[in-house]
Amino acid sequence: MRKKLEDSEELAWRIRRDAIEMTYLSNGSHIASVLSVADIVAVLYAKIMNYDNTNPKLPTRDRIILSKGHAGAAIYAALAEEGFFNVEELKTHYADGSRLSGHVSHKGVPGIEISTGSLGHGLSIGAGMALVAKMDKQPYKVFVILGDGECDEGAVWESALFANQYQLGNLIAIIDHNKMQSLDFCENTMKLEPFEEKWKSFGWNTIRIDGHNHKELQKALEEAKQKKETPTVIIADTIKGKGISFMENQIVWHYRPPQGEDYTKAVEELEANKK
């Protein structure tokens, strides 16, 4: 079994490189969403979460739910790089019969807590898990990664009320705030601002940071882990398509897979920028 990778910058690079390859081979979508969330996922796995890659069902493990399940390639890549399964299996992503489905699936995949992709459900599930942990006096934390467009869903705000009501300090939401959703900008679809004030009014400890700055991410997550009775939301300002210059802030890359010259250019750019 592969040793846990503890360098979050290295893990983020590998997630991006793996994801480009995965979506290229499968002709699959959502690469820009994967690139925007890569740093968040990397810091969680490399620096923050308690888990055991040899015992994925460890009762005291921290839980992670990718509510924006369409970015599942980021979680699969992180799990493979952290030794939950062989990195070579990533090449089967989206293929017929593969356990690595396009939207993240827990079916047969070690380290995945729940299948997601129907937006708006992840925070509800996470709140339930956090309540169980509190009732059973278990030490684990529950981390839920949401998309900003996903916050259009009423279930998100019902869950926010629930978490405040039951004082779920062990629940931490991280919003990948890349300002885009599907085929348009969030601002044109459903305005979110004042985003911080909304969460504060629901009783949440609210932190806003640069979602690509690993030091800021680690500091915010460590602060959130210290909360006893107040749930925390980290609004992580990100860039959709981060790490590939021609994909950054370009709506079209929500669905377009990297093929041909685009694939070659993406790989070359990642290799050139490897730290």
Main β-sheet description = 5 strands, parallel
- Sketch the topology as an H/E string, one letter per element: HHEHHEHEEEHHEHEH
Indicate the low-confidence ranges by residue numbers: none
**Which architecture per CATH?**
3-Layer(aba) Sandwich
Number of strands: 7
CATH homologous superfamily identity: Thiamin diphosphate (ThDP)-binding fold, Pyr/PP domains
Beta-strand percent range: 5-15%
For the termini, the CA-CA separation is 25 Å
Q: What's the helix count?
A: 9
Rounded mean pLDDT is: 96
Report helical residue fraction.
25-40%
Cα radius of gyration in angstroms: 17 Å
Count of the domains: 1
What would CATH call the class? Answer: Alpha Beta
CATH topology name, in short, is Rossmann fold
Strand order of the largest sheet: 1-2-3-7-6
Principal-axis shape: globular
- Helix and strand content put the structural class at alpha/beta
Q: How would you explain this protein's 3D organization?
A:
The chain has one domain (8-272): 3-Layer(aba) Sandwich (Rossmann fold). Helix content is 40%, strand content 12%. The protein has nine helices and seven strands. It has helices spanning 8-26, 31-48, 72-81, 122-135, 154-165, 186-189, 195-201, 214-225, 260-272, and strands spanning 63-66, 142-147, 171-177, 180-181, 184-185, 205-210, 232-237. It has a five-stranded parallel sheet, sandwiched between helices. Strands 4-5 form a two-stranded antiparallel sheet. A hairpin with a 2-residue loop joins strand 4 (180-181) and strand 5. Helix 1 packs antiparallel against helix 9.
